[in-house]
Amino acid sequence: MNREKLMKMANTVRTGGKGTVRRKKKAVHKTNTTDDKKLQSTLKRIGVNSIPGIEEVNIFKDDVVIQFTNPKVQASIAANTWVVSGSPQTKKLEDILPQILSQLGPDNMDNLRKLAEQLKKQPPGEGNASATIQEEDDDDVPDLVAGETFEAAAAEEKVPAAAAAAPAAPAAAPAAPAASS
């Protein structure tokens, strides 16, 4: 670039007279509204329809329930897409259980009974039920000793099992030559 062009560009960004500081470039911040607009335009392309009259949406994940109160629900059956937008609240399953009992269907009631049985079997001093189940499943995993790997420990377990499964071979007696008459 030539010097004249640079001087001309420098003068355009100067806010005061000669010797003053040049203006700072204002940073353009990306807001959530631009993200929402992009999302809404994408959803419009998919062809989602608004579903009115939904007061509450509960999403069950592990021992936690993500609850949306008065959400905006949109769906596109053809694209197998459901959109739940609103402010979520994360709650424990035990806290929300009395409120949702009337909303559960027969298949969910069976799952609820199983969960209740697990909670009854669990001693009061213990944490959650999933930790107990995980401890019971640990029997299949070999214990490691310092300096060993899982592969070596697994190979050692297979060798004694294979030896016990193989039938013991009878002691070999020297073969006597068949006498011919």
TrEMBL record:
PROSITE patterns: NAC_AB. Pfam families: NAC (PF01849). CDD domains: NAC_BTF3 (cd22055). Keywords: Transcription, Transcription regulation. Transmembrane segments: none annotated. It comes from the Eukaryota. SMART domains: NAC. The keyword Transmembrane helix does not apply. Residues 14-36, 120-181 are annotated as: Disordered. InterPro entries: BTF3, NAC_A/B_dom_sf, Nas_poly-pep-assoc_cplx_dom. Part of the nascent polypeptide-associated complex (NAC). This is Nascent polypeptide-associated complex subunit beta. The lineage of its organism: Eukaryota, Viridiplantae, Streptophyta, Embryophyta, Tracheophyta.
